[in-house]
Amino acid sequence: MPILQPLPDRLLLGPGPSNAHPSVLEAMSRPLLGHLDPDFLALLDRLKEGLRTLFATRNEMTLPLSATGSAGMEAALVNLLEPGDDIVVGVNGVFGGRMAEVARRAGARVTTVEARWGTSLDPQAMTEAIARVRPRVVSFVHAETSTGVCQPVEEIAARAREQDALVVLDCVTSLAGRPVELDAWQVDAAYSGTQKCLSCPPGLSPVSFSERAIERVQARSRPVQSWYLDLSLLAGYFGGETRVYHHTAPITAIYGLAAGVDRALEEGLPARFRRHDEAARRLVDGLATLGFEPLVEAHERLPMLTSLRLPESVRRQSEANVRARLLTEHGIEVGAGLGPLAGEIWRVGLMGENARPEPVDRLLEALRKLLA
Amino acid sequence: MPILQPLPDRLLLGPGPSNAHPSVLEAMSRPLLGHLDPDFLALLDRLKEGLRTLFATRNEMTLPLSATGSAGMEAALVNLLEPGDDIVVGVNGVFGGRMAEVARRAGARVTTVEARWGTSLDPQAMTEAIARVRPRVVSFVHAETSTGVCQPVEEIAARAREQDALVVLDCVTSLAGRPVELDAWQVDAAYSGTQKCLSCPPGLSPVSFSERAIERVQARSRPVQSWYLDLSLLAGYFGGETRVYHHTAPITAIYGLAAGVDRALEEGLPARFRRHDEAARRLVDGLATLGFEPLVEAHERLPMLTSLRLPESVRRQSEANVRARLLTEHGIEVGAGLGPLAGEIWRVGLMGENARPEPVDRLLEALRKLLA
Fold first, then answer.
1. Tens digits of per-residue pLDDT, A283-311?
2. Cβ of residue A357 closer than 8 Å to a chain B Cβ
3. Partners of residue B370 on adjacent β-strands
4. Are B135 and B99 in contact (CB under 8 A)?
5. CB B314 within 8 A of CB B293
6. pLDDT in tens, A101-129
7. I need a labelling partner for B92 at 20 to 30 A (CA). Which of B186, B238, B252, B341 fits?
């Protein structure tokens, strides 16, 4: 039996991947260029500039890292941390916890500031920890994909900067779906993914590093533990006049990301953010009629990922069973809860191209049938 | 100006990427499934089985790693090595040297066994170093892409095994282009790339780990330094009954690899290897008439990558200039020499779908015009 079989159609309303736009898939079917071809390097330069616009930054070191968002997280932390360095990590979900784990593996002394899953980080608690520890790095998640909570970036980042700490921000789920303002917020390292609000397949991690972050990397006393993610080596290929081979860039994925960024910029970011907000409102209002209640308070709730407490009508049939029927009978994927929220919530993503009325209405119609 | 612009057609006869087959590009334009979708997990299982056939292994832990071949190298080394462990690395080109650097960054004590670039590793010298150092790991490159040299795997691996060392083998350029026999050779960890003899875009690294390698990982006294590449975490998603989310698998790249492996298995590996051998002979014979001389002795020369000393007709015009004209006037990419061989050689790849008479003849015709 061939490995590649006919694939079912899915409406991807989980925590990502979201459905890729046809223009992205068309881009990914184009013939390859070599990774040192002048035409490819010119495309890469235009892509870096497009990513700067999405991140709202002038950071020269803004590029598509050749692995998924989790590798972007690892790149940010292992470049900035040396063994024995202190880091303060905000943890109120899976991805904050992952940051702490990655930092530990880089030999850092990790101080976590916890908040209950489903609530946002407390800037006051972060500020106190930053003042007490005086860490090299302060790290937290903008849009926590495991809960649907948005953190107040500006305030925490300002306190970190006052203590001369570098700020690392996870923008995997927020980028291109709500405002991300690296320069205004004074963030030093940020990373994202392609499979959320950019409507590209997973596989790359757009990253951006400030001048201060680059200086820190250059001042390291020992090499970055990861050769693949070493920023000073990546700089030789992704920047500078002469492009030095480091690894072979994933040409096709980069074509896809180029098409995705083109679409986002063509639509315009304010319109795109508005579209995400409107779709989320339609979803919450519609699901309320079926008894679903948002986990997160409205003022700290993300638009592109909504966590919902399950009504009795779902619990009665077992939530896993309803999700499975949504998938197989209606072709719609939604996400399960993770960690302490497993079995308690669903996570519904309306990301990128899916942040429109039609996907919401399709989900509502399917649920009405399944829960009747 | 949009980031994605019309792209020129290229015949990719460098050290990789090679041209992707149309069936691979078609696969990559298919709509996405979620990374936990039962249909996607079934595809992943079939792909793992296909990769086992390519690697000639029964290793359960055989999977497509979510980053390029260089990350595959890093995964093999950082999982098997702990700080202070000894490793013997064969170095006769860029990629052997890279192995040594990656091992150093993992805290290992590195003993290199060097051979002149363009010649193969000396099994006797490797054997002596293995007996002297008694390392935890012995590591070398099957097909050295920087020179076009093939190493004698079986003999070195047998000596390593006698000393109870784990064997790591770089199969980036060899896999699916000439025999790779992990189980027969008793290799413990191997990695490859998709953009060489599999005629897929770059972006994934097929890897395979033996039971002995897994036992070593499980017996570690400290966690693997890389969270992204940690084999015990990857095992939770890629294997086992319940699939645990680790990172989001690059769905589209995996579709492409599935189509590439399907094609290789449909053709049959012996026929595919023969096709690579025949194309290489045609190339060497044809280029001899233009004064190009193979760098590597026939008995240790790779079929899919041929290094050639440049004739006076090329040097006269400057080799970089001739390569640039090949690219812009004839749409053909060939590779430059690296390190001590920069300016001395070209590297011509006939990989996967390009290992056929037509690409060879197109290159010969173009060169005849340029060097007339």
1. 999 999 999 999 999 999 999 999 999 99
2. no
3. none
4. no
5. no
6. 999 999 999 999 999 999 999 999 999 99
7. B186
pLDDT over 80 at B130, yes or no: yes
- The pTM assigned to this predicted structure is 0.98
ipTM of the complex: 0.98
E runs forming strands in A314-365: 332-336, 345-349
Question: For chain B, which residues make up each domain, given as ranges?
Answer: 11-16+268-371, 22-265
Helices (H) and strands (E) in chain A, counts: 14, 14
Q: Touching check for B233 and chain A: CB below 8 Å?
A: no
**pLDDT for the residue numbered B45:** 97
Give the CATH number of domain A11-16+268-371: 3.90.1150.10
The answer to whether residues B67 and B204 touch, using CB atoms and an 8 Å cutoff, is yes
**CA end-to-end span of chain A:** 40
Judged by a CB distance cut-off of 8 A, whether residue A17 touches chain B is yes
Confidence of residue A240 (pLDDT cuts 50, 70, 90): confident
State the fold for domain A22-265: Aspartate Aminotransferase; domain 2 (3.40.640)
- CB distance A231 to A217 below 8 Å: yes
What would the mean pLDDT of A332-361 be, rounded to a whole number? 97
Q: Which residues of chain A make contact with B246, given a CB cutoff of 8 A?
A: 70
pLDDT at A116: 98
Residues of A in contact with B110 (CB under 8 A): none
Q: Residue B87 in contact with residue B110, Cβ under 8 Å?
A: yes
Pairing of strands B189-191, B166-170: parallel
Residues sharing a CB contact under 8 Å with residue A247, sequence separation 6 or more, in sequence order: A66, A228, A237, B68, B69, B70, B71
